[in-house]
Design a protein that fits this description.
Bound molecules: aspartic acid
Structural class: alpha/beta
Strand order of the largest sheet: 4-1-5-7-8-9-12-13
Radius of gyration: 21 Å
Shape: globular
Order of helices and strands: EEEHEHEHEEHEEEEEEEEHEHEHEHH
Distance between the termini: 36 Å
Oligomer: single chain
Number of strands: 18
Helix content: 25-40%
């Protein structure tokens, strides 16, 4: 497209609070259709954009999101990639960070904005944050540099005052309008009177521009083990022995430490010897795994646990699903887990 033409943006409506309405019988919020949402944002007409939309056949609460839904979103983006300048995905907040992380891996060589947003209050409510989030997301999806290049070339989450990298984001509040945060990465943009991009933080691929390549297969034979003092051997062994399991995200203490009882280290080691990939991430909100700082972390590294560095738990589990879905060997998965594919970790 020429730089002077109207930006063409595709909105993909999956559901979430932003488009919900109260059921008069139960008083609970339920997903509603896209026209209800559009009717509540007359200001959309003030944007000098061409806006098209696609909605899930049945809009959902994002707690019901699955990798099949991620595939549906990715398919819509792939099918429309050449015809639009950017994409805005309307999504519930509960699993937004998982979807953002998953899409960042699934959409290889993405060079256009995919901005995910939603709201804490439904769009029909007087104090809704949905209208502002939607309009700002559209403006970010349309943003271009002076040379005509897209400012954002990655999957990002826009919420209230900030734009965050999708695979660095976490939902941090069930109440606050600023519901998302990247604990280990700066904001991509700050939203105030204007939109101020943090140019140094934006994703730019180091290689040549390659065509979009979408990976649809996510292997869900993965699980989290969240450690706590007193965790029992029979519980850990049962989880490690889950039939069919291929990847485990181990949520450890501090800089990547776990109990140093021999049963624990032995159980982890035996699991890894069976070909299961075990990834170490920290339970702390901020900071990274440093496997060699304490002997308790070193024991895990010696047992074959791979460091997830400063991955969020959402990025760690979706990256495992993605790499396992690519049909890689456990050794290859381990190698890629330590390597940043699209800005998801600092290492
Ligand atoms: N339960 C809702 C959802 O994730 C919450 C929200 O959208 O804020 O779909």
């Amino acid at each position: 497209m020429s730089i002077a033409s109207r930006p063409k943006i595709l909105m993909i409506y999956t559901g979430g609070t932003i488009g919900m309405k109260e059921n008069p019988e139960t008083n609970a919020l339920e997903p509603f259709d896209f026209n209800h949402l559009l009717d509540n944002v007359p200001k959309l007409k003030m944007l000098d954009f061409d806006i098209a939309h696609h909605q899930f056949e049945h809009p959902i609460d994002s707690s019901a999101m699955t990798p099949e839904h991620w595939g549906q979103i990715a398919r819509v983006i792939e099918d429309n990639y050449d015809c639009f300048d950017g994409f805005v995905v309307l999504h519930g907040t509960d699993t937004m960070a998982y979807t953002a992380s998953a899409l960042s891996f699934m959409l290889e060589n993405l060079a256009k904005p995919v901005i995910i947003t939603g709201s804490q209050l439904p769009i029909g409510e007087v104090r809704t944050d949905g209208e502002e989030n939607l309009i700002t997301a559209l403006q970010i999806a349309a943003a271009r540099d002076l040379n005509g290049e897209h400012v954002i070339k990655e999957v990002a989450i826009l919420f209230e005052n900030y734009l965050w990298r999708g695979n660095r984001s976490t939902k941090r509040s069930a109440d606050n309008f600023n519901a998302f945060k990247s604990n280990n990465y700066p904001e991509l943009a700050r939203i105030g009177l204007g939109i101020t991009f943090n140019r140094d933080a934006l994703w730019r691929s180091k290689g040549p521009d390659l065509p979009l390549r979408v990976h649809y297969k996510m292997d869900t034979n993965v699980l989290y083990i969240d450690l706590f003092p007193g965790i029992q051997e029979n519980v850990v062994r049962r989880m490690l022995a889950t039939p069919g399991i291929k990847g485990i995200v181990l949520k450890t203490f501090g800089a990547g430490n776990g109990p140093n009882n021999p049963w624990f280290i032995d159980a982890i080691k035996e699991t890894i010897e069976r070909g299961v990939v075990v990834v170490n991430i920290t339970q702390c909100n901020n900071g990274s795994v440093h496997p060699f700082r304490y002997v308790t972390g070193l024991d895990l590294a010696r047992a074959g646990v791979v460091s997830g560095h400063d991955l969020t738990s959402e990025a760690a589990i979706t990256k495992l699903m993605f790499l396992l879905g690519c049909g890689l060997t456990p050794e290859e998965v381990k190698n890629y887990m330590e390597y940043s594919l699209c800005g998801e970790m600092s290492c």
